[in-house]
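Entry for the shared binder. Reason: the reviewer on the internal report wants the predicted structure included alongside the sequence.
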Amino acid sequence: MAQDSSNHLTHFLVVENTQKEYLGGIRHWHNLKICFEENQIWVKDFTEEQIDSTEVKSIPYKNIYYANGNKLFLKGSLLPSRNLPSLLWSPIDRGLPVKLPSFNYNYFGVQEKINIQLIPADKEQEGYALMTDIELLGAYMTSAPAVRLQKLDWIIFKTSPVEADVNSELFTLPPAVANKDLAIIFGTPLLPVQGKVFWRKGNFLIPAGYDFDLHSLIEVLDKLINPQSSFIVVWNIDSTYFLLDKKEVQMLSISSFRLSTKV
């Protein structure tokens, strides 16, 4: 998420230590600082866009304060709530381990699992990747100016991509499904070719217009499916997915297209 360079209030997000796992959805915002005070976790340095984002709104049991001098005010309130404590801050990606603690199984029920689902998104994003038929891409490539292909990468897959081997006590993961004889182009601006547009979240490609229903679990899910970060995980609207090997991604050019397709 892009940072806002304009002046804004300093906001603090406070949760109990027992809610630590819910911070996984904002751990990748490297501008944030974190500290631990007894049984509470403090996070600060949010941009205005971040503090009002879906990722923050989805964190339960939180308090959000803004600072005015040495006083903290609950967000939306004009009355001071508490004094600003003296805390030792560190970058959030250092303060939070990559592998977040497991959920409280008693809360979900011992026999329950979390179903991973894609739902309509409430916020628009810029398209990052385009999946299209090789024939449609080839028709465009015959007349495409070289400058239009700059800074774009692509991958062609004709056989079933590698399937994930995941055995998780927490998640119910959909089966990996395969497509064939397709190409995915990565980068912007997207080519003017008919196909399916995807948004990007880390190693995930998500169909445009959709998002995960549980934002805070994206990083954990990525570690389960793609522990070595060696694959691109492409999601379908029905919450199935397939994997593409990053080593097979190459720069898009007329020559690379001809060599890959032998056209």
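Summary line for the report: Residues 134-141 form the longest helix (8 residues).
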